[in-house]
Each structure stands twice: as structure tokens, then as C-alpha cells.
Protein 1
Amino acid sequence: MQKLRTDGSSGLVTLPRQYLQKDGVLEDGDVPDERQVDVERLGERAYLVRVAEDGSLPDAQECEVVERLAAQRLLNENAFGQPRTAD
């Protein structure tokens, strides 16, 4: 687990190098300078971090975790958005 630190008036957290390497973010084994990153607040204490490539961000809807959460929500609700009941 990472620790939240402060950087001026913002919170700061690091991304593990192994994740950056796996996703092809590193350049010659180093973290590139000035790489654009987008942070969205998903809910209470939950955030989505996306790293831009050639000026565009990966589509959050195509992220495996987001797809799984959406499918789970569909399974837990009926067609009218109401929680399923045991019949």
C-alpha cells in the first residue's frame, strides 16, 4: 500500500514502477518527464488515474475493473434499476 504525501496544496501518491513498465509508460526504463495524467474522483476515497499517450487518454469504459463493476451492478438490479428481490 502506498502512502499519501503532500506536495504544496495537493496530495501526492506514487505509481509502482512495475505497473508503469507493464503498461509501456516507461521510456528506456525511466519515467518520462511531463507525461500528462488525468485523475478523476469516482466516489468517496476512490480515484481513477489515467496516463495519456500521444495526447489521448485511455477510455475508462474499456478498463477491466470498470467493466466488471458495471456488469456486477447490472446483475444486482432488474431492468428498472431496482434491487433484485428473492421471489
Protein 2
Amino acid sequence: MSKIYALSTEDGLAVVVNGDSKEEAREIFISNQIDNEFVQEYVSRFVMVDSFFERFYRDEIGLLYDRESGLFDEVDRIREMDSEEKEAYILSCIEKNVKEYWKDKPQFAKEYLEQFHEGNRAETYCATHFSEEFWLAATKEVVDEGHYGDIEIIEIDFENTNYHLIKD
């Protein structure tokens, strides 16, 4: 039997969802965040900072760029490489990290890398088309990482009352 749930995030977003459980209410919330402008930009941009892509721009030692300046030439192990070697090394790290991240869903790794390469070729550094399944999985990752803060889910039960206080 379907129930009504109120969901609220730390940044003030509040929604009401109809679902069979808190878990289903959360999944419905996530699926409705796919078109959120923040999620769209965060996931589809292939930039080193403040993006989903950032997690892949590293090697076993750490980030492949200096966090303060944003330059990879300030990282010793990168600075010492010539231009071709640097590009090949960074690309191999990105591909390895994407495949590792999506190891349970290799189709998503393939899709992400295809969009990454296409964005680089076009010099837009942005994905133009992810599947609906990829968007759902990536949006779930964004929510799970805490980009919405803690999500509070409260069941609204009007069986014995016509009033339910959500926050005091």
C-alpha cells in the first residue's frame, strides 16, 4: 500500500513523494533529480575541479594537478614528463580510474569514456548524451556523496489525524 513521504535536504529542498517505503521514496527523489541543473553540470562536465570527473583525475599517489593553482605542471611527477608522455599518462590514469569506479557496471565505464573522448575531440569537454540508466546511476552517486547534504525522510500518516508536523 502506497504511503506519503516528505523528504527534505540540508539546503532547503523539500518534496512530497508517494511510495511503498522510505527506500522507494528516496529512489523516486533521486530519479527526479536527473534533470536538476547542478546534477547535469556536475556529471556532464569533464573538468578537474568541482565535477564528477574530478575523482578520475588522479593516480596512485594523488591528484594529477595542484589543487590550489589548478595546474598539473606544479605536480613534480607530471612536470618532469614531456608533452606527449604527460598526455598519455593522464589519459591512462583517467581510463583506469573510470573502469575501476564502474567495475560493477562496465557499460557505464564504456559510456562515460566514450563521452569523455567525444568531448575532448570536440573541445567542449562536456558530455552530450548519456543514457537514462547512466544518468540515474550517476545521480544516485551524487546524492550518496552528500551533495544534497543529509536527506531526511518522514512518513506522513493521515490515518488518525489530518495534520502532521514535519519540522518544529
Protein 3
Amino acid sequence: MTAVNLIAKVYDTAKTKDGKTHFIDVQVDGRDHRGTGQTNLHLTSDRTTTDDGTVRYENRAPYSAGQLQEIMAAAGPTQWPLLSKQDGRPIGTMYGFKADVTPASRGSGLVVNTNTAGPSEFTVGATTLDHQFDCMRAARRTSAGEPGTTPTGFSQVADPESNVEVGEPAVG
């Protein structure tokens, strides 16, 4: 897919000790026409089971420090701090940008081609992640046969290129 509006959640501690690799949760922006109706906006979503049997999904994929710099440069001022739910301190940054995405050569899901990164059509802010969850929740309700509603601030207007299929990242 080309020129997809994306959101990258970059946590300060989600990197290797040498800082050469960062583990980033990249999502299709729910406001992008390719995100409409998707039950999972994460580019990568790998199912894992913890020692106590709890099922979780790992949504981060490895990107090099150089790729992170390209994402940050493309986002420019389109960024917002990620805050701890416990004490409100900054724990990372959310970036809005646009880039091409391709199937991952290793693992599952999709990855960002950071060579094509540019500014997003949308801003990010305090309610962006809430909107992301609202979009996924509405899509799940619609796919389950429940009447769905479009989250506030989002449009479901058909785009001439919207017949491009966006598959949900493989899990499990």
C-alpha cells in the first residue's frame, strides 16, 4: 500500500541496549481510508502466551535507529508525548507520518518503508489513541453484526481507491 497515514508509538525503553534497534508499534491511522472498517489497525500483531497462560498480542516490530530518525523527520511537528497511566510522566512519543507499507520479510504483518516517509495528512494529540481504539471497536461490532457507528471525527466516505484490500495482520 502506498502513502498510508500512520501512527508510530515509540517508547523510550523499547530498544536494544546498544540503541541500534527500536521496537515500534506502528498503526494505520483510523482516519486514513484504508483504516476504515479494520478490526486491527496495528501493522504487526503477534499472539504470545505468558507463563501464567494469559494471551497477549505483541504489536511492536524492530526498526533500526536510522529508520526511527526517518520516521521522526517525516513526522516533524506531528508528534505527541506518550504518558504513563500511573504517574503521568513521559514514557515515549507518538508520531504521525505517511509512508508505504509492505509485507514483512521476516515474521508476520506489515512494515514501513521509511525511505518513502513524509508528513501525515492528520495531526496527533491527546485523543488520537482513543480514536484508534474507537475505530477498531466499531469495526468489530460491525463485523459481529451489531449496528456500527463511526467514531467522532472520522469519515466513512468512499474513496475511489478504497477497493484496495487491507488484510488484518496475521496472528498466531
Protein 4
Amino acid sequence: MATQNTATAVVFLEELAKIVEKSPATYSTDAAQELADSIRSMAEEITKDARVNPDLLHTTRQYGALDWHDEIAAVLIAAEQRNAVH
């Protein structure tokens, strides 16, 4: 059974995919969507292969969505573009 670290990695990938989708600084909309889909696929494979406990993953998603979205946006997106991501 997977650990909290595995669940955290899955949620991080899911949040990263959301940001990639929303990022105004992309080569193209299609490329951003393709990358986001690829990142989501990685998260799904980790979840399946590691047999992540659904309850642990749900709780981690709740905290991760609150804790990471703004932090990741601040790190990955230039200051002048941050409002477009939210």
C-alpha cells in the first residue's frame, strides 16, 4: 500500500496539470493541454501502480488544493501573469 508521500506526489502532479492548463505563458493551447494530459496520466499510473488508498488520496487532495495552488503559481508564473491563472 502506498504511503502519504505517494499520495502527495499524485496530488502534486494533479495540481501541476491544472496550472499547466491555465498558464497564459504557453507555446500553444494545444501543447499546454497535451502536457497537462500527460501529467494527469502520470498521476493516474502512480495511483494505480502504487495502490494509493482512496481515503488518503482524497484527504491529501483537499489539503494540496488549498496549500499548493497559490505557491506553485507564484513560483512558475511570472508576477504580471498570476492574475490570469486564478
